[in-house]
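Changelog excerpt

This revision adds worked examples to the README so contributors can see how folded entries look when concatenated. The first example is reproduced verbatim below.
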Amino acid sequence: MKHIYLSPFALCFLLFVLITPTPNNSISTLEVSTKDITNRTCKRCAEDSTAFSYDFCISSLQTIPASHATNLHGLAIIGMELALENATNTISTIKYLLSSGTFDRYALVRLRDCLELYTDAIVTIVDGVAAFLTEHYSVAEVKVSAVMEASTTCEEGFAEKKGVVSPLTEENFNLFQLSDISLCIIHILSLVEY
C-alpha cells in the first residue's frame, strides 16, 4: 500500500474532530481503552465481514498517529479522510495513464469511466463526512457504500474484455477497503445510537 500523507487542512480538520467531545452515550463500552481502539475496531469489523481485511485496516489506521488516541468517531473520520486522499491520488494516476499513450481504445474508455467514478467518489466522500458529522449515520452509510461500489465498478469495467488487466487494481482495492473501514465503524456507531 502506498503511504498516504494528509494535507495541513485535513490534519487541522482531524484535530478539530478528535478534540471535540463526543455525545454522551453508551459507546464507552466499545472504547474502554483508546490505547487499543484501532485493534479492537479492526478485529470486530473483520469478524463481521469476509471482504474486510484486518491487516489492511491496522496498517492503514496506524499510519495516522491520532488513531492511537481517538474514539470510534475519530476512527471513522480518519478512514474517510484516507479514502478521500486515495481517491484524489487515483485521479492523478488516471490522468497520467490517459496521457501516457500506452493503452488501446478499450482501456482508454475504461480509464475515462474510472476518472468519472473517482471524481464523483470525492464529492460522495465529502457528503458522507458531512452526514456523519451531523450524526445522519444512515446517509453516511449510503454515501460510503456508493464509494465502495465506484471502486468495484471501475475494476470490473476492465474485466469485461477477456485478457484486459486493470492498471488500477491496487487503487481500487485500497479505496474499497478504506471505505469499508469507515462503513463498519459508522455501522457500529449507528447501532449504539439507537
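The second example, added in the same revision:
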Amino acid sequence: MTRRQARSGRSRKDPLWARLSLLFGALLLVASGGVLVGGKVLLDHYSGQITHEGGLGDAAAEGASIDGPINLLLVGIDERVGNEAMGVRADSIIIAHVPSSHDAVYLTSIPRDTRVQIPSSPKTKYDGGTGKINSAFQFGYQNGGGRDGGLELLARTVSSLVGGLKFNGAAIVNFDGFKGLVDALGGVHMCVDEKVTSVHTGWDTRTGKEGVPYYFNADGNPTGLKPNMRPQIYEVGCYDMAAWEALDYVRQRDKMANNDGDYGRQRHQQQFIKAMAAKATSAGVVANPIKVNKVLNSVGRAVSFYDNNVELADWIFTLKGIKPDRMVTLKVNNGKFNSQSINGQWYEFLDDTAKELLTAIATNQVEAFVAAHPELISNDAAQPATSQRTGG
C-alpha cells in the first residue's frame, strides 16, 4: 500500500458543502455596494441575516477596527444535522489575508490533516492534545459548544501555529444555502486545470438517469465503477458551469489526472472562490436589481459571518476595492504531500516555507514574501476557447 492509498483510507462521508468555502458574504455584498449605500434599512436587513457575534475567543484581533491589515478565517464544516454523535469537523480551512492597502486578498488553505497541538476547551470538556487540525472544530462543538464553540477552538488552534496570528473576522459556510447562492448567480465560469472524473455524479447508459457511478467502501473511498454507469468527466478547458457542475467539480479528490488529492481540491476550491467573486461583480449581476436581491437573500442562508464587533457597513466599504483579479491563491507545501505516519495514522506537516508564509501573514509581510516565492502562487487554468458543458 502506498502512502497516498493509506492517507485516503479515512472517513469520507461528509457532504459537499464541507469541501467548500468562499470569501464570506461581505464580498458578495460589495458587488452591490451601490444598492446598499442608498438605504440603511436595507443594509441592516442583510446584516441581521449574516452577522454573528463571538466565535473567535482569544484568537480575535484586539479592537473593533479594520483600518490596517485584515486576517479572516474561512471554514467549511461537516455538520451532520440531527446526528451530533458523528462529530463536526472543519474540512475546509482557509486564511484570507488583506494587506493594509485593502486592494487585494491572499488565500491560503491549511491542509485538514495537518498535525497540530489543539488547545484545551474547558467549556466543552476537552483537555487539549495533539491531532489533526480539522478535529479542533469538533472538540469545540461538542457538549453544547455548537458552531460558536467549534469556530473559537479552531481559530485558537490556527492562531497557535505562529505567534501573533490573530483574526479580524471569520465565516462558516452552509452547503444547502451555498448551493442556492450559486444558482442565484446563474452558475460560474470555471477553468479546469487537470482532467477530473467525478465519483459522485454519473449517468446510466441505458436510461440516461443520473446516479452515483462508483461503489464505495466503509471508509467512503471509491472501489469500482458500477455496471452501465458513465461518470461525469471534467476535461481541461474553460466552461460556463451550472451550479451542480461547479460544486461537483470542486468536491473531487480521488480520480484526478495529477493524483494531487486534497491539494488539487484545495486549488480548485480557491479557483472557485475567484470565479464566484468574478460572477458576483459582473455587470450581469450588479446591473440586475432582481438578481442582486436574490443573491443577497441567498448570502444569509449560505454564510454565517463573525464580524468581531465591526459593523457590516464598515466591512463592505473597507473591502470594496478588492477585485477578482487581485485575489491571489497560494499553495501550502507548494501543493505537494508532506506526510508522515505516526502510530498508524497519516498526518500532513507544514514545511519550513509554509511556516514562513504564516509568519508573513501574521506580520503583514505577505506581498513581499510572495514576491520572493512566486512558486507558491497557484496559477489559474486558462484556455483560449470557452465551451458549454452539459450533463447526460
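Reviewer comment on example two: Residues 17-185+299-388 form a domain with the Nucleotidyltransferase; domain 5 fold (CATH 3.30.420.590). Residues 1-39, 381-392 have pLDDT under 50 and may be disordered.
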